[in-house]
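In the design runs reported in the main text, the only information available to the sequence generator was the tokenized backbone. The following block is the verbatim input for one such run; it is reproduced so that readers can re-run the procedure and compare outputs position by position.
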């Protein structure tokens, strides 16, 4: 029971075990459930997982959350998954609802799916996302994260669970997604929204690794990296660039500023985990 609400979970017809990314599925579901709990004062919330397509490789699974809450006006639905979008009903405004939904859509896209919503004001809402999961053999853990990047994730969890990472990124959704990928591994994640904030945090704390967006307001990632390299104890801390610009000239700029490596945005979890494992091992050696 939540706030006096009836909570139901349905998963009829799904195999007992599937290969998928448990971290991203859990985060996306928590975002949807939290949204429904926030806007539902009475009635029920139903969480459901169902296969909507099957191939030789696996299943396309739809995860959904249906509630009996205040509902959303139809004109607000197209913008609902934008970060920081506010939903206004006839009587009140709920701010910030879009951030969690924007993160959910991005997580779903990383899993080969998408996300959406249906709603009727005063009746309730139906939020959903899809994910491609692979068929499982043997005794795999249900919705296991032992997929294509499970090996690196396991090693990071076992060897660097106390690592402290600074994420410098001006996009709030990207910050939340990266934190959602790292915190379940035991990492302590601090976030800075621009280069100046990153330098200030680095002066107060020593981090094991930095993920640095290249293009940020006030102080960009290249300038922030040059500033970090002048600080005591920061000459060998791995700094990995986050950039949507994959051209070789940008990579030369990153290395010239003192960065050690680079990841393309949106960040692929497999590449992120492999990169972190590589540089944390080098730093430890």
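Verbatim output:
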């Amino acid at each position: 029971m939540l706030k006096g609400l009836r909570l139901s979970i349905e998963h009829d017809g799904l195999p007992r075990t599937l290969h998928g990314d448990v971290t991203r599925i859990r985060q996306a579901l928590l975002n949807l459930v939290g949204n429904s709990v926030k806007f539902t004062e009475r009635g029920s919330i139903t969480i459901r997982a169902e296969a909507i397509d099957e191939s030789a490789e696996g299943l396309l699974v739809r995860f959904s959350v249906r509630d009996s809450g205040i509902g959303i006006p139809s004109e607000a639905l197209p913008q609902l998954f934008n970060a920081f979008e506010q939903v206004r009903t006839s009587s009140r405004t709920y701010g910030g609802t879009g951030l969690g939904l924007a993160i959910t859509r991005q997580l779903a896209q990383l899993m080969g799916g998408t996300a959406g919503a249906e709603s009727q004001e005063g009746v309730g809402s139906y939020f959903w996302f899809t994910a491609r999961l692979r068929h499982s053999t043997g005794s795999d853990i249900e919705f296991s994260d032992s997929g294509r990047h499970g090996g690196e994730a396991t090693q990071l969890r076992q060897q660097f669970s106390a690592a402290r990472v600074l994420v410098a990124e001006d996009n709030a959704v990207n910050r939340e997604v990266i934190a959602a990928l790292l915190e379940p591994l035991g990492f302590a994640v601090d976030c800075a929204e621009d280069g100046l904030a990153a330098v200030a945090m680095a002066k107060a704390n020593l981090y094991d690794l930095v993920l640095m967006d290249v293009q940020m307001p006030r102080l960009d990632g290249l300038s922030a990296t040059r500033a970090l390299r002048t600080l005591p104890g920061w000459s060998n801390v791995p700094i990995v660039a986050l950039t949507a610009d994959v051209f070789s000239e940008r990579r030369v700029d990153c290395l010239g500023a003192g960065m050690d490596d680079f990841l393309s945005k949106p960040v692929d979890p497999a590449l992120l985990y492999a990169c972190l494992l590589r540089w944390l091992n080098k730093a430890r050696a």
